[in-house]
User: What shape does this take?
Amino acid sequence: MSINLKNLISVLDAKWIGPDTDIFIDHISIDSRSLQNGSKTLFFALSGANNDAHLYIPELIEKGVQNFVVHHIPQNSEGKANFLVVNNTLKALQQFASYYRDLFDFPVLGLTGSNGKTIVKEWLNFLLSPDYNIIRSPKSYNSQVGVPLSVIAINVKHNLGIFEAGISTVNEMSKLENIIKPTIGVLTNIGPAHDEGFDKLEQKIREKLLLFKKSKVIIYQKNELVDHSLKVFCEEYPVNDRTLFSWSFTDSMADVFILEKESRNEKTIVQYQFQNEFFDLEIPFSDSASVENTISCLLVLLYFNYDFETIQERMKMLYPVEMRLEVKNGINNCSIIDDSYSSDFQSLKIALDFLESQQKKNATKTVILSDIFQSGFSNEELYSKVAQLIADNKVNRVIGIGKTITSFAAKFTNIITFENTAEFISKFESLNFNNETILIKGARSFQFEEIVSLLEEKTHETVLEINLDSISHNLNFFKAKLNPGVKIMVMVKAFGYGNGGLEIAKLLEHHKVDYLGVAFADEGISLKNGGIKLPIMVLNPESTSFPSIIQYQLEPEIYSIKGLNAFLKIAREKNLKDFPIHIKLDTGMHRLGFEENTFDELIATLKGNTTVKVKSVLSHLATSDEMKHYDFVISQINLFEKLSSKLISELNINPIRHILNTSGISNFPDAQYNMVRLGIGLYGVSNDPSEQKYLENVSTLKSIISQVRTIPGGDSVGYGRRFMAQKTTKIATIPIGYADGISRLWGNQVGFVTIKNQKASIVGSVCMDMLMVDVSEIDCKEGDSVIIFGESPTVIEMAEALKTIPYEILTSISQRVKRVFFR
Assistant: This one.
C-alpha cells in the first residue's frame, strides 16, 4: 500500500488541517498500542461506547505518527501533525476501505449467514490456496470495523479474496457490501442467531442478501423461504447473466442434489447429482453442521470447475476450525467435548448432535452449560426449549452456570446450578466426574477454558506443537513477494528445522511448491518412503550416498569436479540418461561450490554428456540479511550472473537459476531469477523486525509443572548451588533439560518460561532432564502448562540472549520431544 494522502481528502469528504499533504501512507491503524504505527501510518481515531482513540493522539504524535483521521483535533495537537477532519471516523474508515477495494480487480467471495461463515471461509482458503494467492478475513473479522480492516490488507499479489460479513440488525449489510463488493456470494446456514435484531426471519434473509447486490453468482441451500427472498432480491437488484447455484437434501431441482448421506466411523459419505452425473464424496465429519458447511465449499469448487478427484483429495484433509468441538481425553476415564467459546441456541443443538455422535466410550452424558445469548427468544421461551432439547438428547446430568439459567432451573429435571464459574470450581471435587462424556458449552465471558483445564487429562510429557496453518500463512506471505512464474524451493532439511520433516513436506506438496531441499540423502529417502512425490534436491550429498540418491530418484547438488566425476562414473555404470543434477557455484560464501578458476574443467566435463542433465544452477548468499554488506551481496549476484550465463552459453542449456534465500527474497527482489529457496522464513522467523510482525509463530515448545516446593532464604537450587534464595521462594520443576535441546546457557536467571501468561525466571543450572523456575509471584500448581518458547519467549528472544541464531534453537530440540501437528 502506498497512497498519496491528498487523494483521500475527497474520498473521505474531509477537511484538511495540517502542514503537508504531499506525503504517502503505507499503513492503516486503529490501535494506538500497535508497534507498527509510524510516520507513514494513517491513524483512524475511532470512538466507541468504552473508548475514544482521540485521547491517544498526543502520545502517538510523540511516537512519530503524523497523519490522523479525526472528528475533532485534540487540544494542543493542531499544527503538530496532519489531520483529516470528518463527521464520523468509522464511516471514513469504511469509505477508505471501499476506495482501496476498487484499486483491485480479481474474484472475491463474500460469505454471510447465521452460522458457518468463519468455518466455510477457512475451509475454502485451505481448499483453494494451492491454486490462488488468497486474501481472507483474519479470524472472525466480519463486523463494521473488521471488514474494512480485512479488505485493507489486500496487496497486488492477491488474486482471490474470501471475506465474511456479519450483521446483527438492519441497515448494516449495505455498508459491508460497498466495502467487499463480492463477485461471488455464498449464503451459509440461516438460523436464529441475532434474531433479536430483526422483525422476522424473512427480514434477516433479505438484509443478508444485500451483500450480493452486484454478485454474478449466488451459492445457497435451496428452500422455499430463501427461494422466494432471492426471487424478490434479483428483481430489485438485477445483474446481467447472474447465476443462482443451489444445493439441497430434498429438492431435486437444485443444481446439486444430495441423494444420500450416511455416517461411517466419524465420517460422512454423501452421494450427489450434478449435471446429470452421480458422485460419492467422503467428508471427514459426522455432525450435520460440518456436512452442510462442506457442501457449501463443494459448490464453490464446482463453480471453479475443479475435477472430482481434486475435490475428493482436498476434502479428505479438512479439519475442525478454532479447536471448537474438539474431543479431548479427560480425568477418570471421561471424554471432553470442548465448545467453550460460544453459547447460543443454534450452536447448542449442533453441539448436542456432536455429543451424540461421539458418545461411544461412555454411556453417561453430561452437559456443562452457561447462560445462552443471541437466541432471539424471551428467556422463558428459550430455557423451555433448552430443557426440552436436553431431554430429547437423553442427557443424564446438566450443570448450569450463570444467573439466568439458575433462575430457570425448575424447567430442567436433572440440573445442578452455580451462579458463576468460580463457584463451580470451588465445588469441583464434590461433583465426581467419572466415566462420562462431558460437553462443555459456554459463552466466552464465562471463561470455561478453566473448566476444560480442570477436566482435561494431564499428560506428563513435553511436546513441540507445530501449527500447520501458520506454515501455510508464512508460505503465502513469501509467495506474494515473487514475480509471476518464479518457482519456489522450500528447505525441509534438519528435520524441517526441528519441526518435523514429513508432515511439513506433505503440507508443502498440497500447496504445490516446486522443490524440496534437504541436506543429506537419508532425509530425502525418508520423505520418499513417506510418499512425497515432489522433486527433492540433496544439498550436501556424500559420494557414498550417490547409489541411494539414484535409487530413490533424488537430485544431487554437485559442487566439485571430484564429486561430479564420482557421480558420472556411477551414472554411466547404471546407463542413466539425463539424470537431474544441480550445479553449485561459489560466488563468495567459500563453503561449497565451483569457483571461477575451475569453470573450464567443469564445462569440459559436462559438454556432450548425456548421462546427466543440469536441472539448475545455484549459489548461496553469505550476507543477504545484513544490509551493511549490500555491496558484497551485489557482487555475489553479479558474479553468479556472469558464471551461470557462461555455463548456459557453453553447454547450450536452459536450467533453473536460483541464488536467493529467505532474507534474499525480501531484500534483493531483482535477483529472483527462475526460483528462490525459502528456509527459516517458513517457520516464522525473519531477520527483519519490520517483516517479522507479518509472520506467524509456528512452533510452541510446551511442558508441565512436575512439582512445586517452597524453600527458605539461604537455600540453594540445582547443581553447583548456582542459585541462592535471598528470601522465601516458591520453585517449580519442569521436566525438560539440555538433553531435550535447552541450552545450559539459558539457565541461571538468563532465561525464562511462561506460566499462566506470566514470566517465570529459570533459576540454577539447566539439568539434563529438568529445569527449575521461580514461581513466587504466580498462582500455579503441579500439572499446569508451561511454555518453553513460542509467543513468549520467542526463539528470536532466546537466540539474542544466547548470542546465537534462531536456527540453532529450533534444530536443537531433541527427537525425544514429541511433535504434535495441528490446524
In short: The mean pLDDT is 89. The radius of gyration is 30 Å. The first strand starts at residue 3 and ends at 4. The CA atoms of residues 25 and 391 lie 59 Å apart.
